[in-house]
Amino acid sequence: MKAQWLVAGLEALRKGGVGEVRVERLAASLGITKGSFYWHFRDRSELLDAVLEHWSREMTDAEFERIAAMPAGLAGRLLALAQDVLEKGMGRYDPAIRAWARHDRKVAAAVARVDRSRVRALTGFFQEGGFDAAEARTRARLFYTFLLGEPQVRAPAREPGELERMVERLQS
């Protein structure tokens, strides 16, 4: 049940910002009573901390662990990550989290940690793919920036096979 509260919190954040993450509204959207909330969280502040931690863990740690465990090489890993973020919605909460971070120092610090972690993981993928440390970091930052920015500028829509060609270009 706690996971449902966290997902509902992320969805409320995505749809309306941090002001929409309200216990009563979340309970109603989940079809449960407020009492369930207090079984898992002391207060709204604890819920917000848990939502931020859940985003960090599920959209970064778990995702990069899964990608790193893939037997695929660099291109396969980059493509799988790009598909997860851009086509399966793995990055759908990032804009809302980043908007929240503009008004909350604790959230800004968490976003900075997540960004460093993601770029570090991507840098490792590129190094495993044969690039030296400086080139790997540059390519990791380019790819990360692409993943964050692509949903904002998807006009015109990608052509079939374009994502694969982008990934191919980054690894060659």
Q: Write down the overall mean pLDDT.
A: 93
CATH class category name of the domain at 52-171: Mainly Alpha
According to CATH, what is the topology of the domain at 52-171? Tetracycline Repressor, domain 2
Count of distinct strands: 0
Assembly of the depicted chains: single chain
Anisotropy-based shape: elongated
Terminal CA distance reads 45 Å
Distinct helical segment count: 9
SSE order, one letter for each helix or strand: HHHHHHHHH
Q: What would you say the CATH architecture of the domain at 52-171 is? A: Orthogonal Bundle
Low-confidence stretches: none
What Rg do the Cα atoms give? 18 Å
Q: Mind summarizing the main beta sheet? A: none
Helix/strand structural class:
mainly alpha
DSSP strand content:
under 5%
Walk me through the structure:
By secondary structure, the chain is mainly alpha-helical. It contains 9 helices and no strands. It has a domain at 52-171: Tetracycline Repressor, domain 2 (Orthogonal Bundle). The radius of gyration is 18 Å and the shape is elongated. The mean pLDDT is 93.
List the main descriptive attributes of the protein structure presented here:
elongated, 0% strand, Tetracycline Repressor, domain 2, mainly alpha, single chain, 172 residues
